[in-house]
Amino acid sequence: MRFGRRAAQEPTDSDDAVEAGETLAADVGSRADGPHDADGLDLEDDPAFANHIDLGGLVLAPPPAGVELQLQVDEESETVLAVLLATQEGALELRPFAASRHGDLWSEVRPQIAAETARRGGTADEQQGPFGTELHCMVPVQTTGGASAAQPSRVIGVNGPRWFLRATLIGRPAVEEEAAKPWEDVLRELVVRRGAAAMPPGEPLEITLPPDVERPPDG
After folding, report:
1. Which of 77, 105, 132, 158 could crosslink 27 through cysteines, CB 3.0-4.6 Å?
2. pTM of the entire structure?
3. Under a CB-based contact definition with an 8 Å cutoff, are residues 216 and 4 in contact?
4. What is the pLDDT of residues 76-90, one digit of tens each?
């Protein structure tokens, strides 16, 4: 595993999938395990988290060999907007947000994603998955070679205690059940750290590099 850096673009889901040449949602009560809330865990002393990667708002289990960990950065503000775990066959984008204690931000966000998908000439269908209600999207795109293609993505939303996690599967994991399982396991082991500061619902949680990792160069 190595850290990389990429400029944030809109929409990031589609751009990453096109680069790969291939092609985010859970209700709290429907999942049997993670993503987990940091407030209920002992991240410092529990040996189960000894090798996890602390990125501030997200704490990740070490990615498997061959998986690159990238940070999507807004070039103007230098703010990290999302975490991307990527291979040649697919990727998982992670974006944590603040939410109200008993809110359902996913139900609010889902129609917005569907409307944006329709604006781009695509479709977004609700389906039930292991994390609850998901959006399975299909958007017409052009590959880097100029050919027309249809790009699928699978949008998963998790309502946590005072936080919301949006995860997007890209590439083969978005359309193949077996290919998605390792990425779903990443979500189940993920820890979200909301923090105690007052934040309005929908504000991104801060993502930072671990203190022992040098900030990646631009480009």
Report:
1. 132
2. 0.82
3. yes
4. 888 888 999 999 889
